[in-house]
Amino acid sequence: MTPTKPTTIEAYNRAQAGDDPAICDRLRALFDRHLPEAESKIWHAHPVWFLDGNPIVGYSRLKRGIRVLFWSGQSFTTPGLTPEGSFKAADIGYSALSEIDAERLGRWLTEARSIQWDYKNIVRKRRLDPLF
To answer: Which fold has domain 9-125?
Structure first.
């Protein structure tokens, strides 16, 4: 029997092993605090926060730990993120709750609100345009 995939962020967090639920809960709390106007949901099997339908930030479980992905992170000025993929995304990984720097994460979340690339329309336009 194939296990069912979590359909809520709470279920996703609880489905993680070891210390990962605590890391996920902390990330969710920080995301919700800094992006209260964002819509959050499970998207492509992972928790993602959206502003006006545009994906902003999300997290997922990788071998190295919990990865936080900022869709427009390569354009941020606060250092510490690693470029990811061929578009404008950047990420950071956490393998322990103590690694989360709430102040730095808050700066990235603030930047995520004002520095956005238009991922919502990338398929239709066939290009990635800035929204800032």
So the answer is: Aspartate Aminotransferase, domain 1 (3.90.1150)
Which tokens hold the place of 4? 């069912």
Planar angle of CA 72, 31, 13, nearest 5 degrees: 110
The band of 75, judged by pLDDT with boundaries at 50, 70 and 90, is very high
Verdict on whether the full-model pTM lies above 0.85: yes
What are the extents of the domains in the chain? 9-125
Place of tokens 């006006």: 52
Name the nearest CA neighbour of 105 among 85, 66, 79, 72: 79
Residues 6 or more apart from 83 whose CB is under 8 A from it?
A: 73, 74, 89, 90
Q: Is 42 left (phi over 0), alpha (psi -120 to 50) or beta?
A: beta
